[in-house]
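Researcher: I'm comparing several assemblies side by side, and this is the next one on my list. It has 340 residues spread over two chains. Same procedure as the others: predict the full complex and return the structure.
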Amino acid sequence: MHELGIASSILDCVHAEARRHPDVRITKVGVKIGELAGVDVDSLQFGFEAIVKDTEWDGLVLAIESIPRVQRCPKCQHEFRMADFDPQCPQCGEFATQCISGEELDIAYMEVDE
Amino acid sequence: MSRVEVEKKVLNENQILAEQLRERYRHHGILCVNLISSPGSGKTLLLEKTLDRMDKSARVAVLTGDLQTENDAKRLAKFGFPVKQIVTGGTCHLDAHMIEKHLAAWKLEDIDLLIVENVGNLVCPSSYDLGEDAKIVLLSTTEGEDKPLKYPSIFFKSELMVLTKIDLLPYVPFSAELAKENARRVHPQMEILELSSTTGEGLDGWMEWLGERQRKAKSKAGAVRA
């Protein structure tokens, strides 16, 4: 529902980067979207393509990397990908495991033509 | 072609503003809570009951967000505490900039508890940090027990889940146990309260939770200044 706003924030970051490096052309922006970020990646892709179309950024590629939710067990330190909302540690059975990734809503990189 | 690593939050601007707000709240010992739920889960009624139970000398202020109308602010203003409506004009969530703008007319040194009632929506508000100490998610007994599984982001990010409308439990096919189990699957450390704003059942526990958190916020501010 707010993916267009997110797309617009990503484009703002591209603008800022472009101002810092006026002699290069940014061709791709890579983002990391965690499964807990509450962002629908298809809508984000669609929204991004819509806002760059027929602008100076037409053709700028948005590359989305989806980041799964990973839990760490405080007892045995085992790290595991959480599936079906089951937080239980598959190694020792501990229930109160902690989330260590999956909340990402980050710009990771940009690709430029020199 | 070359690749430049950036490593920046997509919502960097919002994040910077939110951290500034958090720092100001900490400085003044303010507890800020961000109430989030689907439309119709009972945020505004819970707020009415909360303000009604507050001591008249309590230093509490409310920002309430909606797409349109000043209705909620009118409902909440009758308790005599400062209340401001944030009309987003269609935006489905509050952001840190809106909070900063609407706080501008208030003196933070006169506030101990700032309650933000977000726009009724379980998706988008989860992405926007408002500088709050705690997000609180409401789930009512007229919804599905699987809401935490359908909207894991907000249930994961909220410290407390308030199960509302428990007076309706005898009349609706809703299992409070299942709802709590689902919430804890998404967020094992989550605190959970149950209440009915209509009958008043469970409101004591809610007021105690707020009071306890407020004392903590105060003592942290004292520690920072000392």
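Model: For your comparison table: The helical segments of chain A are 3-20, 41-52.
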